[in-house]
Amino acid sequence: MAENPLVSVIVPVYKVEKFLDECVASVTGQTYRNLEILLVDDGSPDGCPAMCDEWAARDSRIRVIHKTNGGLSDARNAGLAQSTGEYVYFADSDDTIDPHLVEDCLNALAQYDADLVMFKFDTISENGRTLLSDYKHNDFDEVQILTPQEGIKAQVKSEIDGYFWAFLAPASTYKDHDFSFPVGRKIEDMARICNVIGESTRIVRIPKVLYHYRLRQGSITATLDPKLNRDWRRAADDREEYVERRYPELKSFMKMQQLNFFANLDYETIRQSIITGLKIDPEDADAMRRRIEGLTRDVEGSDEEMPQATRELLDLLTRSMDEALDDVKDSFQDVREYWHQLRAVWAQKATENKAEAEARAEEKAEERARRKALKEATQPGAGLSHADMKAWEEAWDES
Question: Kind of pairing, strands 167-170 and 144-146?
Answer without folding.
Answer: unpaired
